[in-house]
Amino acid sequence: LNVSYLYELIFDESYSSYCLDLVLDYNPITRMDILIGLCDFNPGIRQDTNRYYPPVSITGGIDYAIGSLVFGGELSYLIHSDDFTASGGVEYTYRRVLSIRIGVFCLDKVTPTVGLGYHYHGLTIDLGFAQHPYGLGISKHIGIGFNF
C-alpha cells in the first residue's frame, strides 16, 4: 500500500491531489521481486468547475539485485487513455543508506530519468527527475515512504 501526494505546477497554475497504489509483491527467488498492482487511484484534481483525473494504471514490474545494483523494468496500462508505458533502469545503493538511479521512460518518446534516495530505519525520501518529452522542462518527483 502506498499513498502519494501529487502537485503539478504548469506556468502560473498549480494543481494537487492524492493517489493510492495497491501492489502485490512476490519474491520467487532470492533478490528478485515481481510486482503487479493498481497504481495512482485518485479522486481527481479540481480545476475551477472541472475535474481532471491523473491516469490510473494497471502496472507490472520485475527487478533483480546483484550486489548493490538493482536492475528493473515496468510495464503499465493507462486505463483512462488506453495507452501503455514502459520504463527500465538501474539503481546503485551505497551502504543501504543512499541510492542513485538512472533509467528511461517510454510513452510516445523515450526520455531519460535520474533519481536519488535516502533510506533510514524504514523511512525513504526519494527525489526523481525526468526530461519532459515535449520540451516542457524537467518533471520533478518527491516521495516519502515508510516500510513496516
TrEMBL record:
<protein>
    <recommendedName>
        <fullName>Outer membrane protein beta-barrel domain-containing protein</fullName>
    </recommendedName>
</protein>
<dbReference type="InterPro" id="IPR011250">
    <property type="entry name" value="OMP/PagP_B-barrel"/>
</dbReference>
